[in-house]
Amino acid sequence: MRTGIGVRQLRPRAPDPRAIEKSNLAGAEGVRRWRTRKLTTAELAALDAIAAMPDSEIDTSDMPEFTEWSGAARGGLYCPVKRLTSLWLDADVLEWSKRGGEGHQTRINAALREYVERHQR
What is the DSSP letter of 54? Predict the structure, then answer.
């Protein structure tokens, strides 16, 4: 029975680095990298042409200037990769975490992350 999908189509392809939006965490281990379609030759040429232009020549009249940044938050797109693991915890620590209801694993992860961030400095 043929499905119409060849083996070649199932192999993951390395995306064009210019087609991935890079964040300030793009090189960090444990950060998901979103794959997008490859840009066409015409799209790459258009991006190169814009990159070569001075800012004063780029027409942004169809985009109003955004000046209100008071509600902005940095790092909202950070999405760490999760890994399944078994972990032995003291019974009282686990019970304390479960007392908060659903999401006890998330609370344990948040506490561990806070500890790591505090001790990495």
Answer: -
CA 116-120-121 angle, 5° bins? 135
Write down the mean pLDDT value for the chain.
76
CA distance 18 to 36: 10
Query: pLDDT (tens digit, 9 = 90+) per residue, 50-77?
Result: 899 998 888 888 888 888 888 888 777 7
Backbone angles phi, psi at 48, to 5 degrees: -65, -40
* Cα 64 from Cα 76, distance rounded (Å): 23
Tell me how far apart the alpha carbons of residues 6 and 8 are, in angstroms, rounded to a whole number.
5
Q: Look up residue 80 and give its DSSP letter.
A: B
pTM: 0.38
CA distance 64 to 55: 15
List the chain domain ranges: 15-58, 82-121
Lookup result for tokens 């300030």? 24
